[in-house]
Amino acid sequence: MRYIIATILIVLGAMLVLENIGVASFNMGNAWFFIYPVIFVVLGIKWIIDRYRNRGGSWIFGSFFFIFGTLLLLDRFEVISFVFKDVFKLWPLLIVYFGFLFIGKSKGPNVIITSGGDKKSKSHYNGSIFTVGSHEYNQPNWKVEPMNLSNLAGDFYLDFSKAYIPEKEIPIKISALAGDVHLLIPENIDFRVHASVKAGDIDVVGRTADGINRSLQYETENYHMATRKLDLHLKLKAGSIRVDYV
């Protein structure tokens, strides 16, 4: 919220300065039509930066909002004609995004990896898809409970280093048609994960798989003996799955 407020103040101030020095003439009653495209651009940039700094975010949604906001601004300055309802004209971006997600380097088989390096047969988890939006769990001392998070499209960011994790096995299921999943897990917490993507990449504490129809399973060495542990099932049609130690 502070980014939105800051953006509104900066844009409003800049508009007033330009009008006062005679560089441009604005109808301040229509100022909002200039402000909200800038908000889209700023949010897009923020989400892209957060994604590459491993702080959540999304390059898909970030780039979309950046492009959408930029086109609206070009319309406001009469460079092109593009209004809010023209957002549907951007549907070809979905093809571009899927094109990037289909690019993969790994050609090897899907694998299951334990902490000792053993490989086993693969399996699948099927989830359901309901909504569009993002899920973030990064508040101090948030309580970890069994979850089943499903989205049509969106990002999932769970920081378990800030969480209260009870002494039990906790199942967590995440599924989406398109998006990014990023989990941060303390090194003293045991977990196992089944991650799969139809098109995209997977990185589980340094173990990777990317390309088409990829899946990867990983299990910490003491998982079965641990009393406090996470059982993770992560499934995307297109996107990126990342699990990091902190």
What is the strand tally? 12
List the secondary-structure elements in sequence, H or E. HHHHEEEEEEEEEEEE
Secondary structural class: alpha/beta
Flag low-confidence runs.
Answer: 104-130
Q: Give the helix proportion (percent range).
A: 25-40%
The number of helical segments is 4
Précis, in short:
This protein folds into two domains: 2-90, no CATH class; 104-245, no CATH class. Helices cover 28% and strands 36% of the residues.
Question: Could you explain the architecture of this structure?
Answer:
The protein is an alpha/beta fold and 246 residues long. The protein has two domains: 2-90, no CATH class; 104-245, no CATH class. The chain is 28% helix and 36% strand. It is built from four helices and twelve strands, in the order ααααββββββββββββ. It has helices at 2-20, 32-52, 59-76, 92-102; strands at residues 111-114, 119-120, 131-132, 135-137, 142-143, 147-153, 156-159, 163-164, 169-185, 190-204, 207-219, 229-245. The strands form two sheets. Strands 1, 2, 3, 4, 6, 7, 9, 10, 11 and 12 form a ten-stranded mixed β-sheet that branches. A hairpin with a 2-residue loop joins β10 (190-204) and β11. α1 (2-20) packs across α2 and α2 (32-52) runs antiparallel to α3. The radius of gyration is 22 Å and the shape is elongated. 30% of the residues are buried. Residues 104-130 have low confidence and may be disordered. The chain crosses the membrane at residues 30-49, 56-74, 80-103. Keywords: Membrane, Transmembrane, Transmembrane helix.
List its salient traits.
246 residues, 4 helices, 2 domains, alpha/beta, 36% strand, membrane, elongated, 12 strands, two-stranded parallel sheet, ten-stranded mixed β-sheet
